[in-house]
Amino acid sequence: MKTYIAQHNPQKCRECGWCSEIVACPGADELICIGCGACVLACPT
Ligand code: SF4
Ligand code: SF4
């Protein structure tokens, strides 16, 4: 299984909001990344 470590890149971000408003991040409550890759796949950049 492929895993990811999410890292926000402000220089590429278009501030579309998909990664925070549409994706249900499973680590958001604990402010951790478990590497599911959902926000990475959703990001257009
Ligand atoms: S999905 Fe990508 S481009 Fe959109 S707000 Fe998140 S990091 Fe920025
Ligand atoms: S959606 Fe998945 S890859 Fe993105 S920050 Fe949350 S746990 Fe990490």
Number of E-state strands: 0
Uncertain runs: none
Inertia-based shape:
globular
First-to-last CA distance: 23 Å
How many helical stretches? 2
The Cα radius of gyration reads 10 Å
Helix content: 10-25%
Order of helices and strands: HH
Query: Could you tell me the strand content as a percent range?
Result: under 5%
Main beta sheet strand tally, sense and closure: none
Mean pLDDT: 91
List the bound ligands.
iron/sulfur cluster
Structural class: mainly alpha
Tell me what you see in this structure:
The chain has 45 residues and is mainly α. It has one domain (1-45). The protein has helices at 18-22, 38-42. The longest helix has 5 residues, at 18-22. The radius of gyration is 10 Å and the shape is globular. The model has no long low-confidence stretch (mean pLDDT 91). Bound molecules: iron/sulfur cluster (2 copies). One iron/sulfur cluster is lined by residues 4, 6, 23, 25-27, 33-40. The site of one iron/sulfur cluster has 12 residues, from helix 1.
